[in-house]
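#struct-help
A.M.: can someone run this one for me? Single chain, 78 residues.
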Amino acid sequence: LHMRGLAATCANCHGTDGRTTEGSAIPSLVGMPKSYMVMQMKAFKEGTRPATVMHQITKGITDQQIDSIANYFAATKR
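D.P.: on it. Structure tokens below:
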């Protein structure tokens, strides 16, 4: 329940349960491989990956929370 609540914070941009609408410039998170998601979120947090708002969002979450969010979306079926 905690992981689902944490992952729900992504819904504003990435859609309900990490499913964006077809044709969206924002990627769907559902089913994304955990290792890829962790790597990308840490790159946003470190400022090494270009972004619009993800730099600010990831600065507010811990590495443990990043891991939990990545676990949740990796385990969710498309």
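A.M.: thanks! The radius of gyration is 12 Å.
D.P.: also worth noting: The chain has a mean pLDDT of 93.
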